[in-house]
């Protein structure tokens, strides 16, 4: 677990064949932002992506795990379908009946020469997915099928 309650970020967890991530932050929005960065960082060098374009993303779910799944799937589709490498995320979560997430994301067209290409993510999965609060921080853990 991160040492400071003011921390925001992500780290890999042990998994034999897939990418298993833990994202953390002081709020759900920070956790969802960090989770999206972890997803991008699995595929490409997110530090090389410039925030040149802005796009809007939406996700919904009946609980926090389904919202995280929907969110990460939408981020992945922006890369795979629209060929956009994203590096900044500003999610906002609204709880009105079903959970809703609206976000601004920034990035640029994907260029494998500039951004690198680490590994293909086939899918976001529900396997071992959890979102929880502990010790003043929010956490999200999720597995990406490689």
Which labels suit this protein?
3 helices, 146 residues, alpha+beta, 3-stranded antiparallel beta sheet
Summed up, what is this model?
The protein is an alpha+beta fold and 146 residues long. The protein has helices spanning 28-43, 64-80, 112-115, and strands spanning 9-13, 19-25, 53-61, 84-96, 98-109, 123-124, 130-134, 137-145. Mean pLDDT is 94; it is low at 1-5.
Could you explain how this protein is built, in words?
By secondary structure, the protein is of the alpha+beta class. Helices cover 25% and strands 42% of the residues. It contains 3 helices and 8 strands. Strands 1, 2, 6, 7 and 8 form a 5-stranded antiparallel beta sheet that branches. Strands 3-5-4 form a 3-stranded antiparallel beta sheet, covered by helices on one side. A hairpin with a 5-residue loop joins strand 1 (9-13) and strand 2. Helix 1 (28-43) packs parallel to helix 2 (64-80). The protein is globular and about 40 Å long. The two termini are 25 Å apart.
């Amino acid at each position: 677990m991160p040492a400071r309650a003011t921390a925001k970020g992500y780290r890999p967890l042990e998994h034999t064949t897939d990418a298993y991530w833990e994202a953390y932050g002081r709020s759900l929005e920070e956790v969802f932002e960090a989770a999206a960065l972890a997803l991008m960082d699995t595929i490409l060098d997110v530090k090389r992506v410039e925030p040149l374009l802005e796009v809007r993303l939406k996700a919904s779910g009946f609980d926090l795990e389904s919202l995280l799944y929907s969110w990460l799937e939408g981020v992945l589709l922006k890369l795979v379908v629209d060929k956009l490498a994203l590096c900044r995320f500003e999610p906002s979560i609204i709880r009105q009946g079903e959970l809703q997430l609206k976000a601004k994301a920034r990035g640029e067209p994907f260029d494998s020469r500039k951004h690198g290409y680490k590994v293909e993510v086939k899918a976001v999965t529900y396997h071992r997915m959890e979102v929880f609060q502990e010790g003043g921080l929010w956490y999200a853990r999720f597995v990406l099928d490689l």
